[in-house]
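Entry for the shared binder. Reason: the reviewer on the internal report wants the predicted structure included alongside the sequence.
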Amino acid sequence: MSAVPPSRTLCVFCGSRQGQSPAFAEAAIHTGRLLAIRGIRLVYGGGSVGLMGILADACLEAGGHVTGVITRHLMDREVGHSGCTELILVDTMLERKTRMAELSDAFLSLPGGIGTLDELFEMLTWSQLHLHRKPNALLNVEGYYDPLLAFLRESVHGRGFADQAHVDALLVGDELESLVEALLPDPA
């Protein structure tokens, strides 16, 4: 009898809007499908709109497992995704991030707005404080995160507010497959 491989879970942060470039939606679709094909469970913010909804729908349509975590307040505002494999309701945004972190082995940020940046930096901060040792990455679609990366290098590190190691802890790439492999290597 062969052992069942442990499940791997990736938390994906992304926008509740689609953004202006069709490449952002394409990246969300590709991410959802890739996770399903590789048997990686998706954890995300639980919305059915914007890149969040596109991501979840693509994963579900490809036969993947999707866990959404959403606040009661946002349930109506973001129209919580009723098709998720599992939808977890929490009371606060901090509970939402905490629950997503608890459920996940790694984090990936697609393009998004202030909420996505909040989630990205919360996980980076927790890593810096050794509250978790989970890898964190940005999918830099069409250079979306280039200004942020320059800020991290030039201001945050360059002006002495973070060690280079803390900046380097964030994996960055524009090729999804290699980022997912770096975050969650195939258990061969």
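Summary line for the report: The mean pLDDT is 93.
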